[in-house]
């Protein structure tokens, strides 16, 4: 029974450690739009209803950034869009037109009103990896309070416990001599 408890404890600690490391990497990798960029990949959580029915709220989406020449008319893509209140949000749409000047950044048209520069493109939506519901878990870990209670406090507790264990072991060794 003690061995089973030890295995379960090790599994729980391993899963927690994995989530803590991934969350920390994603938080450190935030860009100016609060989207994690790790290498050529963007990781974000669907947090609004504008992207439904294709994507649901709390979906975790991983999208690879592609070169300017990889986008074609008719492709569906994720992009950053500013609204009149200077808020930036992630949007999704079908590219209706691509305009490129000589050696300049391409402009992508999504319908008649949304024109997006290549620097605001996130990636192709049809090549996105979607994990349904996992965005809620990540959003809890990435929140200020969630990160503090689920990552920082347990880490501090583990460090203090290890220091305490070392001190107790040193006391035992001294008493045995």
Can you give me a brief rundown of this structure?
With about 180 residues, the chain is of the alpha+beta class. About 40% of the residues lie in helices and about 25% in strands. It contains 3 helices and 10 strands, in the order αββββββββββαα.
Q: Roughly how much helix do the residues carry, as a percent range?
A: 25-40%
Largest sheet: 4 strands, antiparallel
- CATH class type of the domain at 33-133: Mainly Beta
- Uncertain ranges: none
Shape-level CATH architecture of the domain at 33-133: Ribbon
Walk me through the structure.
With 177 residues, this protein is of the alpha+beta class. It has a domain at 33-133: Umud Fragment, subunit A, CATH 2.10.109. 39% of the residues lie in helices and 25% in strands. The longest helix is centred in the C-terminal third of the chain and has 33 residues, at 144-176. The chain is elongated and about 80 Å long.
Relevant terms:
single chain; 177 residues; Umud Fragment, subunit A; four-stranded antiparallel β-sheet; three-stranded antiparallel β-sheet; 3 helices
What is the element layout, followed by pairings?
Elements: H1 2-28, E1 36-38, E2 41-45, E3 60-64, E4 76-82, E5 88-94, E6 97-99, E7 107-110, E8 114-117, E9 121-124, E10 129-131, H2 134-142, H3 144-176
Helix pairs in contact: 2-3
